[in-house]
Amino acid sequence: MPDPVMGDWEVWLETEYGDESKFAAQAIAMGDAQYRFQFLNVFDKGTEPIVVLNGELKGRTFAFEGEGMGWSGTGSGTIRGDRFAGTYSGDSSGKFEMRKVVRLSPTLGAKAPAGAVVLFDGKNFDRWEQAGTGEQR
Questions:
Q1: pLDDT digit string (tens) for the chain, length 137 residues
Q2: Alpha-carbon distance 88 to 116, whole Å?
Q3: CA–CA separation, 107 vs 128, rounded Å?
Q4: How many CB atoms lie within 10 A of CB 95?
Q5: Using CA of residue 59, residue 65, residue 67, residue 70, what is the dihedral sign?
Q6: Domains of the chain: which residue ranges?
Q7: CA–CA separation, 130 and 124 (whole Å)
Q8: Residues in CB range of 95: below 8 A, 6 or more apart
Q9: C-alpha angle 79/80/85, rounded to 5°?
Q10: Matching CATH number, 7-101, of 3.90.660.10, 3.50.50.60, 2.40.160.90, 2.60.40.1220
Q11: Distance from chain centroid for Cα 93
């Protein structure tokens, strides 16, 4: 069964004042039902996280605490399928909704470029070599 938390998420935040923001988040499994969410402005730009949350999953409920972007606080939410929704409070408060994102490589299934050495063709490892020997495995 796939991990219900780990992966990429699109995030919508609504503050107590009605302001809305959209972010990207990456959830990392830390072991023993512990996770770290790193909030980013966008995916794939190599930027530092703007907010980092650490928390624990108990059943479908995820409780967290964290800080970043001038905010420090706690919150919790419920994960159902590819949706995660809840509330947060601290220096500011509001609600959030997250949707899991499955991102695929744009070259998935494409033919290898001319001259490429295909190390794994989905069938065997015949093109692999033993490190330091030059011998094929």
A1: 678 899 999 999 998 898 999 999 999 999 999 999 999 999 888 889 999 999 999 999 999 999 988 889 999 999 998 999 999 999 889 999 999 998 888 888 888 899 998 888 888 888 787 787 666 65
A2: 49
A3: 22
A4: 15
A5: positive
A6: 7-101
A7: 15
A8: 13, 14, 85, 86, 87, 88
A9: 50
A10: 2.40.160.90
A11: 23
Q: Tell me the two tokens of residue 57.
A: 């999953």
What tokens does 15 get?
């503050």
Tally of residues, the chain: 137
Name the token pair of 44: 């794939």
Amino acid code (one letter) for 43: F
Number of H helices, E strands in the chain: 0, 8
Alpha carbon distance 42, 40 (integer Å): 5
CA gap 11, 84 in Å, rounded: 9
